[in-house]
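Q: I have 246 residues here and want to know how they pack in 3D. Can you give me a structure?
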Amino acid sequence: MARIALVTGGIGGIGSEICTRLATDGATVIANHIPQETTQAEAWKAERVAAGLNVDIAVGDVSSFDDCTRMIAEITAKHGPIDILVNCAGITKDGTFKKMAPAQWNAVIGVNLNSVFNVTRQVWEGMLDRGFGRIVNISSVNGQRGQFGQTNYSAAKAGMHGFTMALAQEGAAKGVTVNTLSPGYVDTPMTLAMDEKVRNSIISGIPMRRMAQPAEIASAVAFLVSDANGYVTGSNLQVNGGLFMH
């Protein structure tokens, strides 16, 4: 039977590529999106179903535990229990710390970090009971090295790997792996919209002299969630072109 995979933030630049790769590899993939993206998500699904991919969409606010409970119950009723979870949902609300409002801090922590608890908590027990599970938390190079103007984002992304390391220990004897993937800068609509000088400045600081392609991030996820890869857990896989080495 096909594995059931849920990707939060699944219709975004990186999330879309992860969904496509997992579906191509044979999984039944559900892409989570927020209510404001419903029209976009329906078009996203139609395009991929027309291409022969086994994908579906699920609306849910991942910063809300109660909404995640509802969303996972609906997915499970329709498709079956979730075997693979990729926590990819994320937002930025940048600003220097002296100007950062509580709303900016709370929004980023809520979507980027609290969501990892909110969604994972819904699928964890089932994975343990079935003796199989793959969880990948999409962090960031800026969760490892910090970034000016991103205390909220860097804190959330660093917190994701702390979560990974602790939870990996709880799942290790039960066949459930938990890993972090930390991308560097990726060619997505968001980075393409940057001022050209800023973008070129970033690229000049990357040893490979280019940004990652979304497919390269998806390939790393595919490695971490494969049935054959059951001995890597609690790790932080860096996919950053040499921007940060640890």
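Q: Anything worth noting?
A: The longest strand covers residues 176-183. The chain has one domain: 4-236.
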